[in-house]
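Why do we care about 3D structure at all? Because function follows from shape, and shape follows, mostly, from sequence. That is the central idea of this module. The next example makes it concrete: a single protein chain, its amino acid sequence, and then its structure expressed as tokens.
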Amino acid sequence: MEMKLLTEHYHKDEFRRLDGYKKFGGYEVLKKALKMQPQQIIDEVKASGLRGRGGAGFPTGTKWGFLPKNNEPRYLLCNADEGEPGTYKDRLMMERAPHQLIEGMIIAGHATCSKKGYIYIRGEYNYIILIVEHALEEAYKAGLLGKNILGSGIDFDLDVYAGAGAYICGEETGMISSLEGKKGQPKLKPPFPAVQGYLRKPTIVNNVETLAAVVPILRDGAPAYKKIGTEKSPGTKLFSLSGNVVRPGNYEVPLGFPMKDLIYKLGGGLRPGRRLKAVIPGGSSAPVITAAEAESATLDYECLAQMGTMLGSGAVIAIDDSQCMVDMLAVLTHFYHHESCGQCTPCREGTGWLNKVVHSIVEGRGRLQDIDLLVKVADNMKGRTICALSDAAALPVLSFVTKFRDEFEFYVREGRSKVKGVSHAQVHH
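And the structure:
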């Protein structure tokens, strides 16, 4: 069932602190890594098949290999912004095992020849920031950070930077803008951050879970890691399960794990008398799938891509038959309209239109042609902007309307939800 490669000791309180972390083998992998050449570490991570755990699923070793061969200073950034609705696995990792992240970052810093790293944590994670800062203090005192780490001649400094709660700063170039003290707006690529990122220097941006996974990969070796999961999606992944399940929470399973086992076995299934209706498989920007699709889905990049959706950040939101898809879409469109940075017209205007049209249906003012209007607006928003927020807003709309069109038509005709009975308009008047 669960396979605890990263989370094995998360239930032990002492694992948060340096002495406790060391008791369970913490920083032993770092000692080994400091004796390796940077390219050896990159090759090992490449051979493991580790893919970015923040959402995009890009091969980590390949990304590290994009750094130009020059003598410019380079930076390693940990993306701990975790703004994707439904996602809370990075929070758990930093809360229960801050040193696991720090060890992974020092190793990644050595691999990428970076002397300086930042952990960019979302502003709402205030108590997490304190935990990570305390762990950094412990690491500095123990000679694990700073100059000449453990007498290896390798230097690496690490700082925490708190965001201010903007979803857009989870996008790597938006995060870099924020870190530079500018408005958190994404930048055009190319140049990619690996070539020109923070302060216009070569920069690697990885997610918390990606960096932590470097530790078991170097500890056990790439072949052992590659044996877990599937051919194209190796390793384990943390899934944040939420929605209408009996036991929501974070579960670490091998990639390729059946979605229905996550929901029914680990998550304890739905409340008595309820049936599964739909699942959002990878955070709110991933297109929704029906219960029938969820029954045969496996939790890996390939299977979900074939279904026209994505694994994303690994936030699985289970939706039962007591939920109204129109009401849920109203929540999502409001979120994306609110979080658009306004830089690109299709996103700034499109998210506003989607929000307006869905809300007009919910408020009993909808027309049947509005359903097609939603599709048209969403189609026009895809692939026309600097970052993917516009697509993140459009894709859920297209999937909700396509797969649950009857609920939208019923809402327009009857002025109320198909599953809930009472109309929004009646509640308000």
